[in-house]
């Protein structure tokens, strides 16, 4: 029986990309931190790798990174962290630390059986529980609705290959097969609103909510309230069932459970929620018509403004709720026969992932090997209308990268609207070019938008890499010497490090006061490295000074280990080195022939000595030291240290202010 230190669950509205990206990020982060972890995924095809009761019982903590309901009640009695799926992608290490922290409260199931997405007492007291439930239930509705929209929209679009009026029996273009496709497709599309309402209610009140949600969703559809009616109806249905559960709670479950589920909840729920929906249908239908008319008007009156709005929305959260708001509006208009709006939405969704591919092509040295690979894969994802592949790039520098994505998406959408391009399918990207009235022009506009975003991303990444000396954000300079430039980048840092160090690996673990030297005199770089090698032998760390010295020189030939502000990180891995160790040496006079990122002479060496057979821990020591050197306060304290004790204490408990 397999056991895991941590378990988790991920899910997103579409169940396509976010879900599996969060799973991979969490499992990889756990592995790097020395923990075993299993994550079940709630994707479009169902639940993969489901957690067993034994796995849940034996786990130390749980991470739920999901925008849809994943039945959190089964984790009762464990420390549980619940966040949106995007957080699982952006900050997996942070979530693992939170989950294992003693300050994280024990999760308690919702004993009333109402909303299974209830969170911890602490979260509930701050109001997080309510808004988390609102958010996850909406995403649950959208997740289940999208396949109906895609299936129906594509079949309706295909039917038009025989002519726009091929489904109209009175038209000369009429074709019986096309009419059948149109009927099947329109039936699927008509289920959009009921399914949306049903699964919003299901996330709030489970099966009883699902039943009433379908009923109220049908009322919303019949009365013409559109997807807004489906959303409101879903919340009404869920709230009514919760109310009935509370009111009928005094009835003992043993005798009345079946009566409640089969009779009382459906009948009373349908009457109460249906009546409310019926009453508000008229004003909601007017609101829906008004909104659709406004959007239609903008397509003609101000396509540039509309394109900017759509572009910003689609690139704001890359498949998240803001992006989905634009997408749902497009599908609603598509169902009403408006094929212009969706063309701009699709263009704005396709541009961001393509932009990442162009960015890594334009400035390869500013990205790690993994980032370059992801960028190339995004050419495929973007071409099929999957925006989520842009998330890791956006998360790397969100304040600059997200606006860059918005610019490109807005350009693609504006050009699409200005040239009156239409599309008859709600999804598919370039796979459905046959359903676009001006396919070549549409692709051109998308590529132009993606190229603009890509150029901005490449410029930002290049400047960031130059600023950080390639330590965290670039693979162009391989400071660790673990392979070809960029093949083994530093651990990506998506959140500020706590004290600058990984929770499980502290450079001070391989440093003691005997390994700190002040006032070493050297005439040049090679002399400094030669004396470092001799120092390693004198301290009992290595047995062959010449072998260590040659490894130092070989490392420098690959790329200089000179950093910034007078600091270098030379290191050597050799069979003569008996244990992992760190030397910190200050020179009496800086050496000027040691290349560095800011072209300043080197006066401080932080050297790592690594045995030939190493379990990879040295990479953590290296990366954590590199992270520390991105903080001015740490560098200032290092330069000001007066004794070896000061240096060891600084690495053990760094005081980070910036």
From TrEMBL:
Keywords: Cell membrane, Membrane, Phosphoprotein, Phosphotransferase system, Sugar transport, Transferase, Transmembrane, Transmembrane helix, Transport. Its main location: membrane. The keyword Phosphoprotein applies. It comes from Schleiferilactobacillus perolens DSM 12744. Residues 483-503 are annotated as: Disordered. GO terms for molecular function: carbohydrate:proton symporter activity; protein-N(PI)-phosphohistidine-fructose phosphotransferase system transporter activity; protein-phosphocysteine-sugar phosphotransferase activity. Residues 509-654 form the PTS EIIA type-2 domain. Residues 6-101 form the PTS EIIB type-2 domain. The keyword NADP does not apply. It is found in: Cell inner membrane. GO terms for biological process: phosphoenolpyruvate-dependent sugar phosphotransferase system. Residues 134-475 form the PTS EIIC type-2 domain. PROSITE patterns: PTS_EIIA_TYPE_2, PTS_EIIB_TYPE_2, PTS_EIIC_TYPE_2. Residues 492-503 have a biased composition (Polar residues). It is a multi-pass membrane protein. The chain crosses the membrane at residues 145-164, 176-199, 211-242, 262-280, 301-319, 339-362, 399-419, 439-460. Gene3D superfamilies: 3.40.50.2300, Mannitol-specific EII, Chain A. Signal peptide: none annotated. This is PTS system fructose-specific transporter subunit IIABC.
């Amino acid at each position: 029986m397999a056991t895991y230190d941590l378990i988790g669950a991920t899910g997103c509205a579409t169940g396509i990309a976010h879900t599996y990206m969060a799973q991979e990020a969490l499992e990889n982060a756990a592995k790097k931190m020395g923990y075993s972890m299993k994550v079940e995924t709630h994707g479009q095809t169902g639940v993969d790798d489901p957690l067993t009761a034994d796995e849940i019982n034996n786990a130390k903590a749980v991470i739920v990174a999901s925008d849809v309901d994943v039945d959190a009640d089964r984790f009762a009695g464990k420390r549980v962290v619940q966040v949106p799926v995007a957080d699982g992608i952006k900050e997996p290490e942070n979530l693992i630390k939170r989950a294992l922290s003693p300050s994280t409260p024990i999760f308690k199931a919702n004993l009333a059986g109402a909303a299974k997405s209830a969170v911890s007492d602490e979260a509930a007291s701050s109001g997080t529980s309510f808004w988390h439930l609102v958010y996850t239930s909406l995403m649950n509705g959208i997740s289940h609705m999208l396949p109906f929209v895609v299936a129906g929209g594509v079949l309706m679009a295909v039917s038009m290959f025989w002519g726009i009026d091929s489904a109209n029996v009175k038209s000369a273009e009429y074709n019986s097969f096309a009419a059948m496709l149109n009927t099947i497709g329109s039936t699927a599309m008509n289920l959009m609103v009921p399914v949306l309402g049903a699964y919003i209610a299901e996330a709030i009140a489970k099966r009883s909510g699902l039943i009433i949600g379908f009923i109220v969703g049908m009322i919303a559809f019949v009365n013409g309230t559109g997807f807004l009616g489906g959303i409101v109806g879903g919340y009404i249905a869920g709230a009514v069932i919760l109310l009935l559960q509370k009111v009928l709670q005094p009835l003992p479950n043993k005798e009345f459970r079946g009566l409640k589920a089969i009779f009382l909840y459906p009948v009373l729920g349908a009457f109460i929620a249906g009546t409310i929906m019926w009453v508000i249908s008229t004003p909601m239908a007017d609101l829906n018509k008004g909104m659709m008319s406004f959007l239609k008007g903008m397509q003609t009156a101000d396509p540039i403004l509309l394109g900017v709005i759509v572009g910003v929305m689609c690139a704001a959260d890359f498949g998240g709720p803001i992006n989905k708001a634009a997408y749902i509006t497009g599908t609603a208009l598509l169902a009403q026969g408006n094929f212009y709006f969706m063309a701009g939405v699709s263009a704005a969704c396709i541009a961001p992932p393509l932009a990442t591919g162009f960015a890594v092509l334009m400035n390869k040295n500013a990205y790690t090997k993994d980032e370059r690979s992801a960028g190339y894969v995004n050419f495929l994802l973007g071409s099929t209308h999957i925006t989520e592949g842009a998330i890791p790039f956006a998360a790397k520098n969100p304040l600059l990268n997200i606006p860059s994505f918005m610019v490109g998406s807005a350009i693609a959408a504006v050009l699409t609207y200005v040239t009156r391009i239409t599309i008859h399918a709600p999804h598919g990207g370039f796979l459905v070019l046959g359903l676009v009235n001006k396919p070549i022009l549409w692709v051109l506009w998308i590529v132009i938008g993606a190229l603009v975003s890509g150029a901005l991303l490449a410029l930002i990444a290049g400047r960031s890499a130059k600023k950080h000396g390639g330590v965290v954000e670039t693979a162009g300079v391989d400071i660790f010497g673990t392979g070809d430039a960029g093949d083994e980048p530093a651990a990506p840092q998506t959140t500020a490090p706590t004290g600058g160090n990984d929770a499980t690996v502290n450079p001070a673990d391989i440093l003691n006061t005997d390994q700190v030297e002040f006032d070493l005199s050297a005439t040049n770089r090679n002399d400094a490295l030669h004396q470092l090698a001799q120092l390693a032998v004198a301290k009992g760390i290595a047995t062959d000074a010449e072998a260590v010295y040659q490894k130092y020189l070989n490392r420098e030939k690959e790329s200089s280990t000179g950093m910034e502000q007078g600091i270098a990180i030379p290191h050597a891995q050799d069979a003569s080195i008996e244990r992992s160790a760190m030397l910190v040496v200050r020179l009496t006079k800086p050496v000027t022939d040691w290349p560095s990122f800011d072209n300043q002479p080197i006066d401080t060496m932080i050297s790592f000595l690594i045995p030939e057979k190493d379990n990879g821990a040295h990479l953590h020591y290296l990366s954590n030291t590199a992270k520390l050197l991105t903080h001015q306060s740490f560098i200032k304290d290092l330069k000001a240290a007066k004794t070896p004790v000061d240096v060891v204490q600084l690495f053990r408990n760094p005081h980070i202010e910036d």
